[in-house]
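Re-run with default settings, no changes from the original entry. Doing this only to confirm the output is reproducible before filing.
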Amino acid sequence: MNQEERSSILAESEPAGLEQYIGRTIRDLRLKNRLTIADVAAKACISRGMLSKVENGQTSTSLDTLNRICQAFGITLSRLFKQYNIPAGGAQHVRKGEGMEVVRAGTRMGHTYRLLAYDLGPKKVFEPFLISMDDQSEVFGTFEHPGTEFIYMLEGKIEYRHGQHTYVLTPGDSLMFDGNIVHGPEQLIDVPIRFLALIIYGEDYDGSLSSE
């Protein structure tokens, strides 16, 4: 199979926009390495006109030519396609102190809940909270809710109850438990207290909380 035949096969199998992606990537690599079109063309043993067409997405070239261009930059062919066709994504970025404050039963008893993310779909799968407590004399109630809860201590010292057991948590400690069993702060030993709480709900969760 000659070069033109390989080029034709590659062009037929390429999704729309691949030539433009390859061209932009090669141009970015060339500029990043402060090389001219003549420099890269000479190293890849191709004409400057061909390289210019590749960079401008005006031609579908063979894998052999692309491989030689990659070798001119000292990279593998796979790296050339590393960023191709990656989903755009849609991450939620919450900056320090900007989590949405949520009013819940615990809020009236000295808790501050900051919701750090929320589900975009029709069903609530999880809720991550940053919880702060600063009133050492406050008496706390207990909570029950669907799902599994995971706590990670960031600051302070707390005695936390789950069912018939209590656990003393300090920074770096974690606790995971069934949210349907009665739980909550037993004693605030060293304030201020901050911990992350991640509540993971089951598939049949309808969005309501029972006692929290």
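The radius of gyration is 29 Å. The longest strand covers residues 183-200.
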